[in-house]
Amino acid sequence: MALRLYNTLTQEVQPFAPLTDNTVRMYTCGPTVYDFAHIGNFRTFVFYDLLRRWLRASGFQLDHVMNITDVDDKIIRNAVAQNKTLDDYTAIYTKAFLDDCATLRLEQPERLVRATEHIKEMADAIHKLEEGGFTYKSDGSVYFRIAKFKDYGKLSHNDFSGMQAGARVDVDNYDKDNARDFALWKAAKPGEPAWDTEAGHGRPGWHIECSVMAIQYLGATLDLHAGGIDLIFPHHENEIAQAEALTGKQFSRFWVHSEFLLVEGQKMSKSLGNFYTLRDIFARGITPEAVRYLLASVPYRKALNFTFDGLNSARTAIERLRNFKFRLDSAKHLPEGVNPKIEEHATRALAGFRAAMDDDLNTAEALAFVFEYLRDANTALDGGDFLAGNLAGANALLNQFDSVFEVLTPSLSTDGMSEANIEKLIAERTSAKKARNFTRSDEIRAQLLEAGVIIEDTKDGVRWKRK
Ligand code: AMP
Ligand code: ZN
Q1: Which residues contact 67 (CB under 8 A, 6 or more apart)?
Q2: Ligand 2 mean position to 77 CA, how many Å?
Q3: What does pTM read for this prediction?
Q4: Cβ neighbours of residue 455 under 8 Å, at least 6 residues apart?
């Protein structure tokens, strides 16, 4: 069985393969770096990671582009309020985002591209759209005339034909009932950072950045474009309108969208205030692997309700897997031979895991195959029925599992010791020293060292770093 993915454009699960050669040209919408990303955002980024890994497991090579949106209304508002340049402001959250991705073991796309480094290309594209008669100007801004693009609505499967022509919208995000001509280029308001281009004095709208950078790096037609479901309309609908008006070719063959991370039935989001950043989560002593596992374990097209119980179950599941691996690694004196029942189960589980992943990345079903095998194999180990010849099959299954989920190796940096705990111990050591309880203060230093944390006493206080 080969990989099949649900395509939002056709509303069908379809066999997936790249069009021209063995390389998948894919674009995923990246973060807007105006603040720390929350774990709702990371559900989508974990989904991109699973998709990458399974595309590669399917034998394809990847050319994956992801944007960093480093100019938008919120970024400008915050940077101006903090008296920072756009670059200084976005550098902080870009770095935080990349650090978080590394902590969650997310593979880096082949190219990470920043919007502000492609302003000229965007202005050129807007000019070309202008020449094609797809735009009009108003108060220094340039708008895309959606009535001119006959396929408008084909991705979100909406009929916009009866819409009032000429009504405009300046904000980047709006709902279907408010479909309007959208801004390609926004005239600068006084005091805002702006660029001088052929399109005027101002900055690009959000939608144009993705169309332009995708085409620049991947060509007119992508194999796959992905994002969270909130991006289907208007963002991806607008990306299609701009790109197809520019090239006259189909923009992306597959559109793949991940469902939300919810909190008590509502989308986790900044605006609702019901969000956790990774920093919030790690401060509670929860490991990155537990977060990764939880986000990966529910198939991407199912909404996932976030709870701390869910994170706890993820931790327990990881422990079971690690214990099993430990049992395999430390089983030195297994009897010779192969237990055919266990071997058959390993083969079946491996095939089942792959078939489930091929079936639109059904991670829940893939996991069920692994755990069913684990139960069987653990019982066999207890009863002496697991033989030396069964090790290879067990390891093959675990390796296949971990090539996708990647949770078997504990994180060095946060395993067992969160930043909050480190700070707490350092404070305790400082009071111990003050009370001249050097036994205790040495004990704490050793404990920290054991956890990979080095402390240094300086005249400004205690500094620490991880080994
Ligand atoms: P933003 O930084 O707001 O542009 O969002 C980055 C990505 O996170 C987008 O692809 C969104 O679709 C996605 N996203 C935002 N909130 C959630 C959520 N609660 N669950 C899953 N994905 C989300
Ligand atoms: Zn985008």
Answers
A1: 27, 29, 30, 112, 113, 114, 115, 209, 210, 213
A2: 21
A3: 0.88
A4: 426, 429, 445, 448, 462, 463, 464
Q: Is 267 in the pocket of ligand 1 (CB under 6 A)?
A: yes
How far away, in angstroms, is 28 Cα from ligand 2 center?
7
Among the bound ligands, the one closest to the CA of 231: 1
Cβ(260) – ligand 1 distance below 6 Å: yes
Residue ID of nearest Cα to ligand 1 atom 12:
228
Peptide bond between residue 335 and the one before it cis (omega within 30 degrees of 0): no
Position 268 in a domain: no
Q: Is 36 in the pocket of ligand 1 (CB under 6 A)?
A: no
Closest residue (by CA) to atom 13 of ligand 1? 41
Distance CA 57, CA 48 (A): 14
Determine if ligand 1 sits within 6 Å of the CB of residue 58: no
Distance 333 CA to ligand 1 centre (A): 50
* Pocket of ligand 1 contains residue 116 by CB under 6 Å: no
- Same domain for 171 and 206, yes or no, is yes
Same domain, 130 and 21: yes
Q: What does the mean pLDDT of the chain come to?
A: 94
241 and 371 both lie in a single domain: no
Task: Report which bound ligand comes closest to the CA of 210.
Answer: 2
Q: Which ligand is nearest to the CA of 209?
A: 2
How does pLDDT run across 190-236, given as a tens digit for each residue?
A: 988 999 999 999 999 999 999 999 999 999 999 999 999 999 999 99
Same domain? For 35 and 135 the reply is yes
Quickly tell me which residue has 């205030």 as its tokens.
Answer: 273
b (16+ CB within 10 A) / e for 421-444 = bbeebbeebeebbeeeeeeebeeb
- Is residue 270 one of the residues assigned to a domain? no
φ, ψ for residue 304 (rounded to 5)?
A: -125, 120
Domain that holds residue 229: 4-258
Name residues with Cβ closer than 5 Å to ligand 2, which is an ion. 29, 210
Q: Which residues contact 327 (CB under 8 A, 6 or more apart)?
A: 378, 381
Phi-psi category of residue 315: left, alpha or beta, with phi > 0 → left and psi -120 to 50 → alpha:
alpha
Q: Is the CB of 115 under 6 A from ligand 1?
A: no
Give 277 Cα–ligand 2 centroid separation in angstroms. Answer: 22
Q: Are residues 216 and 340 in the same domain?
A: no
CATH number of domain containing 365: 1.10.730.10
Classify burial at 15, counting beta carbons within 10 Å of its beta carbon; exposed 0-12, middle 13-18, buried 19 or more: exposed
Q: Does 230 contact ligand 1 (Cβ within 6 A)?
A: yes
pLDDT tens for residues 224-248?
Answer: 999 999 999 999 999 999 999 999 9
